[in-house]
Amino acid sequence: MELPARFESLASTSGSAANYVPLTPTTFLSRTADVYGDLPSVCYGETQYTWRQTEQRVQSFARALLAMGLQPFDTVSVLAFNTPEMFEAHYAVPLAGGVLNTINTRLDADTISYIFERAETRFLLIDRELLPMAAMAIESCRARGQTLDIVIIDDPTAAAKPDVPADAYEFDVLLAKHHTARSDYLPAVVADELAPLAINFTSGTSGRPKGVVYHHRGAYLMAMGTVSGWAVPRHPSYLYLVPMFHCNGWCHAWTMTIMAAKVVCMRSVDPDAIFAAMQTHQVTHFGGAPIVLNMLANSPNKPARLNPDRVVQAMTAGAPPPASVLAKMADMGVEIMHVYGLTETYGHILQATPQPDWAEMDVQTEAELKARQGVRFPMTEQVGVIDEDGNEVVHDGETMGEIVIRGNVVMSGYLKDPAASEDSLKNGWFYSGDLAVVYPDGYIQVRDRAKDIIISGGENISSIEVEGALYKHPAVGEAAVVAMPDEKWGETPCAFVELKQDADASEQELIDHCAAQIARFKRPKKVVFGPLPKTATGKIQKFELRVKAKTLVS
Amino acid sequence: MELPARFESLASTSGSAANYVPLTPTTFLSRTADVYGDLPSVCYGETQYTWRQTEQRVQSFARALLAMGLQPFDTVSVLAFNTPEMFEAHYAVPLAGGVLNTINTRLDADTISYIFERAETRFLLIDRELLPMAAMAIESCRARGQTLDIVIIDDPTAAAKPDVPADAYEFDVLLAKHHTARSDYLPAVVADELAPLAINFTSGTSGRPKGVVYHHRGAYLMAMGTVSGWAVPRHPSYLYLVPMFHCNGWCHAWTMTIMAAKVVCMRSVDPDAIFAAMQTHQVTHFGGAPIVLNMLANSPNKPARLNPDRVVQAMTAGAPPPASVLAKMADMGVEIMHVYGLTETYGHILQATPQPDWAEMDVQTEAELKARQGVRFPMTEQVGVIDEDGNEVVHDGETMGEIVIRGNVVMSGYLKDPAASEDSLKNGWFYSGDLAVVYPDGYIQVRDRAKDIIISGGENISSIEVEGALYKHPAVGEAAVVAMPDEKWGETPCAFVELKQDADASEQELIDHCAAQIARFKRPKKVVFGPLPKTATGKIQKFELRVKAKTLVS
Question: What is the ipTM of this complex?
Fold first, then answer.
């Protein structure tokens, strides 16, 4: 861009080392350790570090990685629970110049092997308990000739103590060996803010998982924007229930560092342990999937209030929290904010931020408003819900369009998959594949995945809506609805249903049940009974059902 | 930088329109108006806008500027009080593609004329009351052949109603004429985040003011970092006492928009009006110079508490707040955070952020800790206090060095003054010219301006320290100490003193008084009595005294 003449002389100093510093979330730790060094950082069981100690451990681990031969942008994969080492890896790996690849601990061996190959894993940080599930992947990795150094997190509280490979390093031993003096700390700087910071694989509901690449700028802005959007105060007590392998734990490892939080880590999610940790650490903030909220709300051992002194702020994503859970959590002194995001967007980018007048509404209305996916976070530059021609849909709460996102917290692309990258990043937008409506107040509500929409006689049928109708039948345990080819209508809904144990229902009974619940044209034309295929993370694999449905006729 | 092969295919999508959006603070208004459109935005007297209305006014003013012929990066100068129009200019000018140049309303006509010429002012937004002081500058501007369109803020509450030039536009008339439909709103986007956003002239204590250039990225990060560093909650009620012509009001116009604050504007700073506004708007946050805090703390009409419901957060900069003011403000329910910054750093970059254990200390100790300039804000990437060889000084609270800053909130440079730019931006740092010590806890305390240090026999003498000693003498009204040439010592301190009315003291008496207060070698060798030369903003012009001192001998 041409600047007027009076700005020309700035060229000699603008963008210089003094006034242009590439953004990176690693600076958050350096500042917080400098400013709040004596305050608690990561807590885990009896262990409680200060921010100065966390920085020390991070720097020592980074030095260890370098000593073991880490080269710039080498992949450091992590298979671990939410323990301090997992948190520390979020700083040590980028400080050492590596790329962090946290892996879902519920994946199958074959998928882990695929990820090691795809991400070209050079180091594996792994919890000892998870060694057996990774054994085959490690073996294949080495059989391929990949150099793979293994660092073991040997947690004394682990339930199982499988054998450790003879050539593996132990995390604590490495820290002691590479204990780093302050004067030798690696600087929290990067040469390029768009350089890769992390690779997070999608859950693979539609085939092999894809490696989503994050950069430093995105993670920095995600963290800063979350502080603003969630209005995080100084020194919150944050219970880390979201697995850090999901979008780097919604980027909260970085976010919470900015505010010098106490970060309470837990190995597993168990209601009684959660209640105990909440009491011990006077938790003020946490995030969790709806199932976690549900578990807490329905636990017989739940306390009257989670924190007697203040309202606890909880963030949830995945499925809309039902009114009953919102009400129960409110009774326990918890305010829930529903958010929406994808692995491709570093986690949450929409938030059902509460409006001051919602509190005056009846519980059901408030719950309905809060169960929407919401409006954009401050770091989400633009969000659209667009029709096939790329135009924003009418904001009437009825007209569906696809959610598209533009912003610095949109992934750089999929690793080694330019076709998929270019397919989802085009026309200046990231295409989420989620179909949604926009209400007159601007709040977005997701209705379905784009590929889960059934187009029947030119009408869109939301598979979620048909599934919702099926779930209302007392005999239905699990249900999934996909498109089935139809000569007349193009597509019609086909339902796959797993009945509850000892329950019974005929195909016709379920079809009639749906026809009574929803528009008649939306009822399934066929019902197939039997167990549903699922991913390692428990998501129903609709793509398999789609393949199957193509062989059927209505 | 070379990336490993596995990242190469990202090149086709990384940094694309979908995932790279240049940072600009104008997005804050677009989001807040979308999300919190019905909530109060800018309040001024009886006027109270909503965020939707503020966006509407901003968009209409931006359209008006374009209709009047604004070209990209044209300078829009503003001479105004803290009224809604001043706030709106912070969004309208960049949205229209212009560069905002807010000017200190206490400057003399000659300096204003200099600024119009230097900044190549194309538009002037001016409060009607300020027309007389700008008349000469406007005239010179046009005499030079500069095209200058004038927009008048015609505030009905203004004390004076001077004549308006026949060719001037009226702000409200422009808004009505260019009322813009939502579908015609200008997008909050910039092509280059390093492009100029604002020009802020320094106060000119050392000669002609210099035009400091800010870019969009810096202002965005400044605002986000301030939310984090000051832990600003959602919907604060912010009283805008800091003039928006000082570093764009410490960039709080942008900061407060992120959190959808109620922004309470006032035409002038008067304790009773401030107390009234604080009560009406239940103010939770404000910023102000120490003199404002002092005025509030010592007002006979001060309320028992500024806000009965909560502790009010106040930010102050300039001089360390004395213990007595901190104590009085604490009694009124105000927590003060002392910050430090310069026009060259977009405002505050250090903050005396409170540590949890400070509250347990005695009032005097706590005040001393809080009166330091502090530690870095989250958006301040690096701060050093370095000796002449560029090494960080010992953190002993005694060894002095110069404060140097590296970060995205350091100016691009001085307008049309590459020599000055290169002199202050070098070796990867911005040289602040302020001398400071660092305490063992990492908190920085400013001791003097570099050029105000007197080097006598190889020893540094802080002119502030000598002035402090002089101020303790009951007869001294105002004092300034500068270096005077000395054959033996190189330099010695020379004091310029204005005695209090009806007070009396001899030169020798003041010299002896100082010798009893501070190290003997630091005592002034000469005392010159008489009125002190000052800038339009009331700062003592030490450079004039330095010139005078050079003609003297000790």
Answer: 0.89
